[in-house]
Amino acid sequence: MEKEDCMLSPPAATMTFQRLLFALGLLLSVSLCAHSQSAAVKQRYQKFVTQHINGNMNEYICDKEMRSRKITQTDSNDCKVTNTFIQASGQLVKRICGEAGTHYRGNLFKSNQPFPIISCTHRGGARYPKCEYRGHKSTRYIAIACEDGWPVHYEDDDLVIVQQ
After folding, report:
1. Which segments does the entry list as coiled coil (predicted)?
2. Active site residues
């Protein structure tokens, strides 16, 4: 085998180099987008996910989820009066901050489609971990606060369909 047989022709080498540059550019842009989230927004988003996202949630496990996720009133160990879990992925809920939501007011966006939710309501105990909750399932449009395209606060919901 001659040396020439192993080498790429100039047009093929140029196309391979262009593909490599394109792939590197794409990787860099995705990396920059992922890292453009500030530390404060990242922290608020993580708290939002912990408190409000659970695709496998049901109305019978409110006590367990509230306890395992250590959800209490902000800045205390008092039992939170009500907490809402959205039965969806974080990525699906994040889309409300963009094309799947409509600007409502300030930094609030309302979902264009209803979501199944579980509302956990305090029914006993005063301080974590002795809080007791009762769950209620329904389907609602939801309103969330967004910062830099990331959900950071569950604001409200409007009843659409109650599922018993």
Report:
1. none
2. 52, 153
Q: Are residues 7 and 70 in the same domain?
A: no
Percent of the chain surpassing pLDDT 90: 66
Residue 41 scores a pLDDT above 90: yes
3 state SS for 50-63: HHHECCCCCCCCHH
d(CA 161, CA 65): 24
| Residue showing tokens 């205390």 | 76
pTM of the model as a whole: 0.74
How many C-beta atoms surround the C-beta of residue 89 within 10 A?
12
- Look at residue 146 in the predicted model and tell me its pLDDT: 98
Q: Which domain holds residue 7?
A: 1-36
SS3 84: strand
| pLDDT surpassing 80 at residue 6 | no
Residue 78 has φ and ψ, to the nearest 5°, of -65, 150
As a whole number of angstroms, the distance between CA 126 and CA 112 comes to 37
Predicted pLDDT of residue 144? 96
Same domain? 101 vs 134: yes
CA 79, CA 2: separation in Å to the nearest integer? 78
What is the pLDDT, as a whole number, of residue 69?
Answer: 97
